[in-house]
Design brief:
Layout (H helix, E strand, L loop, with lengths): L5 E4 L4 E4 L8 E5 L2 E6 L8 E5 L5 E8 L2 E5 L6 H10 L5 E3 L16 E7 L11 E4 L10 E4 L13 E4 L6 E8 L2 E5 L6 H10 L5 E5 L12 E3 L31 E4 L4 E5 L6 E8 L2 E5 L6 H10 L10 H5 L8 E3 L31 E3 L3
Length: 370
């Protein structure tokens, strides 16, 4: 039985004993009594993940009285996984997969030790979390955990995702790299939010299309490695999104994922005597065009200066902005909205190419310190 607290009243002192893993005996004197916190080490390694592709993924097991048992998934959530990842020295918590996905499965004689785990997410070990002794849980409810693997070559860098067999690197079938091999991504769980992450990671523009099925010529011949993606759309890389266990997909290549992003923006500042000041133009379909100043402000200036490697925005006045004169020809972009943290303008929100309600009297001009 797991005890969260045990009070023992003695003649002149009050002893409070908490049974946890991985800590030493501590004594804390209080006025009028002595509070003794007894923290007993049950195992130098009180938790492990079994059946995954690396030590930071798998079915959750805990050790009690020299035996390894499983954890029930009642109440199991990402906060609990975060504590397991921290205890094992793995990276961030990436998901709460079912423990039954991992093979070999738990043996029938293996016990389910813990039920109703309730971590705040800040604990150092799973044993510090509120939990109950298992009372009505079977192995088909075993909990799993998916953490980042610090030893894996799959690190969150752009080279670990690509769009294959498309016209350019911003359109194609989604593939991910694992241990120097490329694998397809299944459509199960895929969404436009996940496509946005891929486009951002590859340095492309906005996600404009994601298809759940590829045409036969575009179907992959590689193993299908990743499925059940669950992205919010704000992640920096696809590896930051929770997913099903790597390599556990049951998909076929009819379910390969195809994504199309806008191409990266080519920018220039024209009309000034320096490269880092002038009227802003963007290149689309081989034609340079203006950007309308509706909703344009300091954050958008900052992104342009950053992308052109021109230092910081000098926050020009309205008069200074208009000194470069109006453009001619196409007005490509309108209602551009940036957070200011984007690395390039294509990562900001904007209307579709060529859709606007502007004249060239509203052309954007930018002045950077560079």
């Amino acid at each position: 039985m797991h005890f969260t607290a045990l009070w023992a009243y003695l003649k002149n002192e009050l002893s409070f004993c908490v049974f946890l893993f991985g800590f030493q005996h501590i004594q804390v004197p209080l006025p009028g009594l002595t509070l003794t916190t007894c923290l007993f080490v049950a195992s130098p390694s009180g938790v492990r993940l079994v059946g995954g592709l690396h030590r930071c993924e798998g079915r959750v097991e805990v050790k009690q009285n020299g035996q390894w048992g499983t954890v029930c998934d009642d109440g199991w959530d990402i906060k609990d996984v975060a504590v397991v990842c921290r205890e094992l020295g793995c990276g961030a918590a990436n998901g709460t997969p079912s423990g039954i996905l991992y093979e070999p499965p738990a043996e029938n004689e293996q016990k389910v030790f813990i039920q109703e785990v309730n971590c705040t997410g800040t604990e150092d070990t799973l044993a510090q979390c509120e939990q109950e002794e298992a009372y009505n849980c079977l192995h088909n409810e075993d909990a799993g955990a998916l953490c980042e693997n610090p030893e894996s070559p799959l690190s969150p860098v752009p080279e670990n995702v690509r769009l294959a067999d498309g016209p350019g690197h911003c359109k194609g079938r989604v593939e991910v790299k694992h241990q120097n091999r490329w694998y397809s991504v299944c459509q199960t769980g895929w969404s436009l939010r996940a496509a946005k992450v891929v486009c951002r990671q590859l340095g492309c523009g906005r996600a404009v299309l994601t298809q759940k099925r590829c045409n036969k010529p575009a179907q992959g011949q590689r193993s299908i490695w990743l499925s059940q993606m669950s992205c919010s759309g704000r992640e920096s890389t696809l590896q930051d999104c929770p997913s099903g266990p790597w390599g556990k997909s049951t998909c076929i290549h009819d379910e390969d994922t195809w994504v199309e992003c806008e191409d990266p923006f080519d920018l220039r500042l024209v009309g000034g005597d320096k490269l880092c000041s002038g009227r802003l133009e963007v290149l689309h379909k081989g034609v340079w065009g203006s950007v309308c100043d509706d909703n344009w402000g300091e954050k958008e200036d900052q992104v342009v200066c950053k992308q052109l490697d021109c230092g910081k925005s000098l926050s020009p006045s309205f008069k200074d902005r208009k000194s470069y004169g109006p453009g001619v020809g196409r007005i490509w972009l309108d209602n551009v909205r940036c957070l200011g943290e984007e690395q390039s303008l294509e990562q900001c929100q904007h209307r579709f190419w060529g859709y606007h309600d502007c004249t060239h009297q509203e052309d954007v001009a930018v002045i950077c310190s560079g």
